[in-house]
Amino acid sequence: MKEYLIRLTPRSSFQIALHSDTLFGAICWGIRTLFGVARLLDILAEFETSPPFIHSSAFPWKKVGKDFHYFLPRPHLQPLTIDDLKAIAMERAQKQRSPRLKKRPYHSDKLSLLTTSGDYKLFKKISWIPLTEFRLLMKDMAEANHFRRYLDNKFAEPNFNQSGAVQKNSIDRLANSTTGSGNTFYQKEIAFRQDHGLYFLIRTDAIEDYLTPVLRFLQDSGIGPDARTGKNWFSVEIEGSGLFPEQDGNAFISLSRYIANEPLIVAKSIYKLAFIRSKVESREEFAGQDVWKDQVTCFTPGSVIVPQDKKDYYGQLAPVKEIADATIRQYGYAYPVWIDMEETDAI
Predict the structure, then answer these.
(1) pLDDT digits (tens, 9 = 90+) for 272-286
(2) CA 213 to chain centre
């Protein structure tokens, strides 16, 4: 399958994160709206044998001049030990030590260790790294070298959005008033800075068959429950080339929420789990029903997975709800970026 980059330029504030399962739900509603229920069911049936498309979660980009700079989730790596931190601290102390402190190396080394430990805490909080650094990690998964580049100011996390609380009013429908059972509440919204936005990657052979019309439709309809009030709107651009050509390896970094459906070598994988319980998007046929899905456990984007066997795809559409004679499924296919995992890289 060919990889495409879908660039989203926000036209409003956002109230939801565009995870891979959120994007899949929006695509499915778009297929249903444009092509009908029968076409949607046929496409969903294809996922049982061979997915017609897989896609990542949405990640930030920024534009500098005419160039777009893309960011990806920082891979989960084996954490540094205290000995690793001491070695890096000694390197920094040697570089920074002034001639007058050479007679008192103990104090400068101790200060460097304290400073390095504090910097490592800040480093571990980084969510996004630039594409150039991600590609370096694909070749060398050592967190120590990754941390050294951070200390040398080779990369930094972008400040691409600004979040804030927006005051809203709930209405007492019986009294048609904000008093009584009505109330004031606050909702978090995300506003993107100028020349910043989101993108996701998709691999498919059906980009023109139905995905391009659906993406154009979502450009005009928005994504999520608040799209009808002017939130979660964007313009869309489809780039004919993605970020990662065909790769090979014995492990992969997932760029999507991944619900495993195959045996993995867990002891060699480095990952973070998320526990998700979301709601079915409530439209006409689901009105008045319990729309909460079952909770699912998934690997988060950035998880480094070592599978037992090499396959064309990993994950599943997990059944999470029976409602109105329909089975609702949660998107959980991995979007793999393949790497060679050395034995020393694993836990």
Answers:
(1) 999 999 888 766 677
(2) 24
**Structure tokens that stand for 85 in this block:** 């931190």
Both tokens of 71, joined, read 């960011």
What's the Cα-to-Cα distance from 144 to each of 81, 90, 149, 270, rounded to whole Å? Answer: 10, 13, 9, 16
Mean pLDDT of 166-172: 66
Q: What residues form DSSP beta bridges with 172?
A: 177
pLDDT in tens, 24-65: 999 999 999 999 999 999 999 999 889 999 999 999 999 999
Closest CA relative to residue 144, chosen from 73, 92, 72? 92
Query: Average pLDDT of 125-143?
Result: 94
289: phi then psi, degrees, rounded to nearest 5: -105, 165
Instruction: Read off the pLDDT band of 346 (50, 70, 90).
Output: very low
CB 167 within 8 A of CB 107: no
Asked if residue 276 lies in contact with residue 257, where contact means CB atoms within 8 angstroms, the answer is: yes
Enumerate residues 6+ apart whose C-beta is below 8 A from 286.
280, 323, 324
Distance CA 219, CA 145 (A): 41
CB of 272 within 8 A of CB of 303? yes
Strand partners, 188: 165
Sign of CA dihedral 96, 100, 105, 107: negative
DSSP string, 57-126: --EEEEEETTEEEEEEEPPP-PPPPHHHHHHHHHHHHHHH--GGGTT-HHHHHHHHHHHHHHHHHHHHT-
Least confident span in 95-104, 120-129, 221-230: 95-104
Evaluated on CA atoms 294, 295, 297, 300, the torsion sign reads positive
Cβ atoms 217, 25 nearer than 8 A: no
Residue from 76, 75, 74, 77 nearest 345 by CA = 77
Report which of 82, 61, 62 is spatially closest to residue 72, judged by C-alpha positions.
Answer: 61
